[in-house]
């Protein structure tokens, strides 16, 4: 039997199979359920029903849905911008607010929509934003609005409101966390020199949490680009979003080619957003 | 232009239900440099933050040139603070950091540029203006933080352990730079530190703090040579302690001979403020290692106090030898030029001026 010292000196035998076995289930799941469908849809966007290479799917997509593509970009960009502004406002108040009860209340309330699925959020907004919905009824009962002059928001505005309501907690959570982890003395130094809270937020806090804010906004942008339930449920009218058009091409015509072409355009739009972000990161010294 | 005078009266600060400052009274002369000295948790930074307006006070008053600023926000107190972590804004250049306070005051861009150049020249940072502060060394960042505070011509400069993140050699240089700048500008400065030597070198007056109270306030010489309590004596370097017995005599306070010490008489004028010449009973004597001398263990009768002991440990920190000498059940540290063997019997001679005596009841309390 080898001595204790010899055992300690003996080289450790490394098994190469065990790590692979541990990783394999996760890797297979990603490959089969994500990478394969993604590559397949990208390839079939350039193939016709006969299996021949073509750009016809893209001609059809642009011919029928160019307005919807523009509409999607505008809606998602507007929503992303609104989410960014409001997340900064919430994070800023949580970091710089001096009324402790208000800060505690906001900290408790703002995360709620994070746990609500898009489809439920859309249903909530249908009942809230309709012409005779909860919002208008409340305003009428408070005497702030005349019953004859109520207007429904179940159009592009409803989509934006739903997206912002749903995505704001996620970005606000990231941003407020980044703000909370800042060196507090950088805020105190500005205060000491005479900066007001708004100025501290804009000139001292936001520039320091910009990388985190950008990550949150890009993830939100990508998420909103892929939502189907909200545009269908909140706004049934035209123009609508790309996701609705994709579902329509498949369900009504079995046109996977055009649907995949629209999907490819979605990838390109989200990829462009990510590229702009990464480019800014490299220009800023390689920090994303 | 001389800086402003600051007065703190009966200042109390609570963190929740815990009182951390207990009725602090402090007067700072215009243009003087005051160091708040104490160990971690003694309340020195809290006092500085209460003066600067970042910590609300529970009771008491803070006045600058007679103007009550107790409830004023930090930016309305005419004070600028240099933080321990520098607190520079990493997304701004050196020039933007220094000029930010001026920008907030609505000063024209050209005037800001001139002032920033002036500050950079004063701090020997010419050419560093366009550089991001993240590209500067620790010492350079420290100077930028100082420049940012000085750029707005504050009445009072508050320094919250600004040198603690610097390495020893740079720290000594920056110490003298800050002191020279303060004297040159005639500005009032309050400096928080736990470093005794730093406080001694930089300050005109030292405020030693202990457990949220001022333990002693005086010039560096007063605090060093005439500590009012065992805590101050220990904090100011008189870390060796020995228990003795004393009784009053006409010539002063007599130290009664004991199993490990000779008798001695300390004239009343040589006694510090810690013990009365009429004290009768046990005392604890504090002394510094460099104030003790090694002597023949048989030495008696020359009027000085001699402790008999044995060398337990010897080391050479540079310039002299350092010995750990056991005296009865205690161990004292003594510096001496001569080399002695471990185990040698020695006498530790202590002249009257080297001793800081306190009633032994204080020994039962807290020693640093």
Question: Would you mind describing this structure in some detail?
Answer:
The complex is a heterodimer of chains A (288) and B (368). With 288 residues, chain A is an all-alpha fold. Chain A has one domain (52-283): MetI-like (MetI-like fold), CATH 1.10.3720.10. Helices cover 75% and strands 0% of the residues of chain A. Chain A is built from 12 helices and no strands. In chain A, helix 7 (156-180) packs across helix 9 and helix 8 packs across helix 9. Chain A is flat, with a radius of gyration of 25 Å. Chain B has 368 residues and is of the alpha+beta class. Chain B folds into 2 domains: 6-230, Rossmann fold (3-Layer(aba) Sandwich); 238-364, Nucleic acid-binding proteins (OB fold (Dihydrolipoamide Acetyltransferase, E2P)). Chain B has 9 helices and 20 strands. The radius of gyration of chain B is 25 Å and the shape is elongated. The two termini of chain B are 40 Å apart. At the A-B interface, helix 8 and helix 9 of A face strand 6 and helix 2 of B.
